[in-house]
Amino acid sequence: PNDPTSFKANPDMMNDASDEEEEEEGKKKKKKNKEDEDGKKGIYKPPRLMSVQYDGDETRNEKQARSLERARKRALSSNLMQELKEEYLDRPMEYSHSSSNTLKNVISQREQERQDYEETYFTRLPLEKKKKSSFHQMTLNSIGDQVTRFEDLSVLHGGGGGGDYEPGAKKRKKQMMEGKKKKGGGKGKAKGKKRKFK
Asked: Which residues lie in Basic and acidic residues bias regions (predicted)?
């Protein structure tokens, strides 16, 4: 009984009570392995739940009225209407930071930052070709959009907006364009032999 080796720890005695825990841990590890196979380890995956406004209680007339109201607001805030208001109303000129001028604001802000930097450090910042061409393209596109884009102003004349206004017209047009792209009309590699000219 005075044998000191009898007092040493016996790890086999501890395993009997924790067999159930080991089984649970084994199941958890299997689940983790399955999750790791689905996606990379350590990357956050947000839940695939999206909040969507429930419009099941709305009638067809309410939906149409709401879409007409949106079209009316869009027509009132168009560039054409803004210019007409400035020209014919006796109000003083307003400079605003509305959504129609966001591109102009971004461009002018970048230009102002660039100018401030050049003036404080007495150096000229070189313009890269990519930035220069993107700036040029942005201004050309925005001017083209402002000049050629006319909102459906018939909505403002009352009610239905003539026979032209249909809320799903953009969606249908987009679907038609996608259908044309799939059919294969466009630039691609020419099939057949290549001709060589002397």
From this structure: 57-70
pTM for the full predicted model: 0.32
Q: How far is CA 39 from CA 42, 48, 142, 158, in A?
A: 9, 14, 42, 55
CA 120 → CA 28, 113, 115, 116, 125, distances in Å?
61, 11, 9, 6, 12
Cβ contacts of 160 within 8 Å, gap of 6 or more: 68
pLDDT digits (tens, 9 = 90+) for 7-64: 787 777 776 555 666 667 766 666 666 555 555 667 887 778 878 888 788 888 998 8
Q: Cα–Cα–Cα angle for 90, 91, 94, nearest 5°? A: 145
pLDDT tens column, 122-174: 999 888 888 778 777 777 766 666 666 666 667 777 655 444 445 455 666 66
